[in-house]
Amino acid sequence: MEYLDQLLGYEIVEGTTVGDVFTVQFLVDVAGQVMLASIILIVGFFLAGFFRRRIIRLAERSRHFDKTMGSFLANVVRYGILALTIIFVLQNFGFQTASLVALLGAAGLAIGLALQGVLSGVASGVMLVIFRPIKVGDFVEVNGVMGTVKDISIFNTELATLDNVQIIMPNTSVWSNTITNYSVYDKRRAEWVFGVAYGANLAEAERIIRDTILNDPRSLDDPEPFIQVNNLGDFSVDFLVRVWVAAPEYFKYQADMKRQVKEAFDAGGIEIPFPTRTVLNVSE
């Protein structure tokens, strides 16, 4: 017992067996390992959350750092720190992490072969973040769906449609299809076709169209507007009108001009023809 006293560093009470001594020592060791593992987990989760919030905050404040890239990197850093935390916890309990990493690698290969579609989605998400054909806040049309980009995660892209409906689209569908991004350029060209009757004064009709559209402050002078007769249809002489406008104003501007030109035609006595059909009652 004196030897055990010296070996363990504390006094052993009389009547205590060797088995009891080693049981107590085992429990003390386990308790220490559990306490240290708990500390590692707490610190790891704290650091993962801290760095994620920090990266997102920096992305929001920086003019040269895209928010989409910031969110993606923040999640990568978070999961990386959590993975390291788990490895440290396992090492604390005596696991051979080298063998564990090799085992996880083999399991990852098998899972990767089974989940090729999921990994393809991850790869597409990485490509979207790196090359940035779209970013959060852009108004886009992808695979026949039109909406505002709300989020780009590792697997999915979230859109909000014009009527504020959430659309979750796999990144593979986004990356592999044609993307129409309406938010890249600051100007868009609005286009209309206005038809007038063959008997109408074409010069007067053109003047009314030009004055109505160019008097609107949203119409841009550069590039120069285009207003010309474009087609001689079955029922009308058609004017093709193309005017540039600031991109955020496009949809409302295009609708407003249709109504204003129609009202100006009515006020100026310019007839807008429409197809008519005459039914004759032929009696025998």
From TrEMBL:
The chain crosses the membrane at residues 30-51, 72-94, 100-131. It is a multi-pass membrane protein. It holds the Pfam family MS_channel_1st. The keyword Ion transport applies. Residues 191-272 form the Mechanosensitive ion channel MscS C-terminal domain. Residues 118-183 form the Mechanosensitive ion channel MscS domain. Keywords: Cell inner membrane, Cell membrane, Ion channel, Ion transport, Membrane, Transmembrane, Transmembrane helix, Transport. Its main location: membrane. GO terms for molecular function: mechanosensitive monoatomic ion channel activity. Homoheptamer. Mechanosensitive channel that participates in the regulation of osmotic pressure changes within the cell, opening in response to stretch forces in the membrane lipid bilayer, without the need for other proteins. Contributes to normal resistance to hypoosmotic shock. Forms an ion channel of 1.0 nanosiemens conductance with a slight preference for anions. Belongs to the MscS (TC 1.A.23) family. This is Small-conductance mechanosensitive channel. It comes from Boseongicola aestuarii. The lineage of its organism: Bacteria, Pseudomonadati, Pseudomonadota, Alphaproteobacteria, Rhodobacterales. The gene is mscS_1.
